Amino acid sequence: MIIFGVAFLALCTLTGIFAGELLGKLLGVPANVGGVGIAMVLLILLGSYLKKRGLFNMETEQGVKFWSAVYIPIVVAMAAQQNVYGALSGGPMAILAGVAAVAVAFALVPVLDRIGRKKLEADEAKPLTTGG
Residue 130: inside a domain, yes or no? Predict the structure, then answer.
């Protein structure tokens, strides 16, 4: 049912927001730190896990797709709530964290590319068998 997809997305969002708030408190930052990103990662990981197990049918996926169309404006609205000026005027730590995150993301692109190529090569190398 489509409502299960919406519930799944809501569960991931609430878990991500809670984890972001907790992370903010642990770091001493009075804000949600990465809650939306955590929610997205949970959505991707749990969604693919459930799909592999056959527990995530097409109707459930339609519920997630419906809200994913609305998700980007939600992320923009949540980002607008953050006080970017306060973070930048608070010291170089915010800038350092942002630069480090971007550098790590760029460094991981070749690694992910190699992993994807290995999987494609392995799929191509499998011989086609005919049942009969």
Answer: no
